[in-house]
Amino acid sequence: MEKLVKVAVDAMGGDHAPGEVVKGAVDAVNEKNNLKVFLVGKAPRIHEELSKYQYKNEQIEVVNAEEEISCDESPVEAIRKKKDSSMVVALKMVKDKTADAFVSAGSSGAILVGGQFVVGRIKGIKRAPLGAVMPTAKGPMLLVDAGANMDAKAEYLLQFAQMGSIYMEDVLGIKNPRVGLVNVGVEEAKGNQLVKETGPLLKKCENINYIGSIEAREIPYGAADVVVCDAFAGNIVLKLEEGLAAVLVSQIKEGMMSTLKSKIGALLAKPALKKTLKKFDASEYGGAPLLGLNGLVVKAHGSSSAKEMKNAIIQCIAFAEEDITQKIKDQIVKG
Amino acid sequence: MEKLVKVAVDAMGGDHAPGEVVKGAVDAVNEKNNLKVFLVGKAPRIHEELSKYQYKNEQIEVVNAEEEISCDESPVEAIRKKKDSSMVVALKMVKDKTADAFVSAGSSGAILVGGQFVVGRIKGIKRAPLGAVMPTAKGPMLLVDAGANMDAKAEYLLQFAQMGSIYMEDVLGIKNPRVGLVNVGVEEAKGNQLVKETGPLLKKCENINYIGSIEAREIPYGAADVVVCDAFAGNIVLKLEEGLAAVLVSQIKEGMMSTLKSKIGALLAKPALKKTLKKFDASEYGGAPLLGLNGLVVKAHGSSSAKEMKNAIIQCIAFAEEDITQKIKDQIVKG
């Protein structure tokens, strides 16, 4: 029998909560039989949304939580004080093993803090990085650390590379994923102090497929499957890609709408263009996992639609089925 | 009478040297009367290229140099040992005040090292950053430091912001340029240690228009005119924009060529699209100045065409006319 995977979802987190979150959960359980979703938050609001859809009753359970954590609050204080918030209640379900995974599109800061303090790090894991699955010309890659640990050390980056490799291999199914270290050139002598210390550690690590330094220019081409850097650099990579892609696409649209001739051209080219640009659509890949915790914590984009929430929830199934937490313990902590 | 601006050009540097370099120099002097270019390198090769064009003889002078510095050499050793290289000879002309500025599309490392060691820093300037003029939806911005100083300190970044402001105001003509600090969020408490220390220094600096932290996502939208960060982060911004723009444009082209209908659409939309994408064409803006030296040192892209070389050379005119070096001394070192 297939293992039933249980996901605690913060129904109140995100720009379009609870509407899109609830719809995403319904779509997820309608697609996967071995999935149970706990929708955590204000029960009457959640039931109101749920009443719009058809789904198997035993696959969705509503868990009441009266409080909400907003993006304007101090993450540390919010997690400490709001014990009855949708986020803290859902995170506790992972800690208690009531759920295998947690998904939220709410305050990024609170998710990072809550993951570390409520769920807790695996013993021996020094820092829990945020892994963002991003599109490239060759398919998905994992950027790690995409935003959790500012001022990192080389020994943290080594573990990020190891955990990222396990994730890409077992959750996304990429065999022997290529690990690249973000640098200002491919030569080993280049880079800042952190990179110069990290390179040799990655090189002598036996359970990863380290291909060396990669330049930022090569990232969108898919130069590596696991792209390792500190969170400051990672956040720049993540956010700059988002911003530049949006600006370029809007400029192209504007250009195509500028003359009658180009408008007709746009109409004809649109279906083909849409298909190509879908490859670069990050919403296909679900959320960003916080790696190295005693259970899976996934941060979805704040503006997540139902489709992104669905993908973030479904992504948890492979993580639980492959027992990534145990693999991290076996291969990294003991290894 | 207009001041004559003299530019020493490394004729042997770059992927398309000396052909495109010489052509760029010819195009520059044919466009500007108050410009004299010294083409430094192997004289016979340079004369051979020059013989293809028409130009006023007094505006171009060939200076012989027998050696060349390649991109594979150690920059420090190459600059120290190859005294008769096109790069070192040209840089010395700036040091001796024979020329106001130096332009090269050769080895980036050698340009950075040569600028510091041959031309030398202005007394009181702690580090010389590379300023890259980049396109945004709103027009050009200056990214500083785009790749010169790994492991920077807050006091360096303060001077980068000041020098960048002078450059944008006096060379590119942007009044009261907005200075933004690259960060992982707009809140002051966010960021790595360097950013946390730099923010307050920028805030209390009176001769810049500091608008606070900016997220990488906002950079392509033109959120600031002077975008300040350490060279590791800056190199990521510069290279990732290059890579992602290239990948997206090639994906779009591929999409447009995928069906007959879309091919016809592409044909119709092409002229309008080209015009829009030109806004995002970095070659319009010339090269990247190394700021804070006793003379102007400009790094052009390794793959520079004649057009890029021409723009990089012409950019030197405003720098010399506005006497940026003196302004840096007056406003930053004494200020």
Automatic annotation (TrEMBL), chains A, B:
Catalytic activity: a fatty acyl-[ACP] + phosphate = an acyl phosphate + holo-[ACP]
Its EC number(s): 2.3.1.274
Lipid metabolism listed as a keyword: yes
Compartments it resides in: Cytoplasm
InterPro entries on file: FA_synthesis, Phospholipid_synth_PlsX-like
Keywords: Acyltransferase, Cytoplasm, Lipid biosynthesis, Lipid metabolism, Phospholipid biosynthesis, Phospholipid metabolism, Transferase
One Pfam entry name: FA_synthesis
Enzyme class: transferase
Superkingdom to which the source organism belongs: Bacteria
Pathway involvement of the protein, from the record: Lipid metabolism; phospholipid metabolism
GO molecular function: acyltransferase activity
Function according to Swiss-Prot or TrEMBL: Catalyzes the reversible formation of acyl-phosphate (acyl-PO(4)) from acyl-[acyl-carrier-protein] (acyl-ACP). This enzyme utilizes acyl-ACP as fatty acyl donor, but not acyl-CoA.
Binding partners and assembly: Homodimer. Probably interacts with PlsY.
Similarity comment: Belongs to the PlsX family.
Protein's name according to its UniProt entry: Phosphate acyltransferase
Originating species: Anaerostipes hadrus
Lineage summary: Bacteria, Bacillati, Bacillota, Clostridia, Lachnospirales
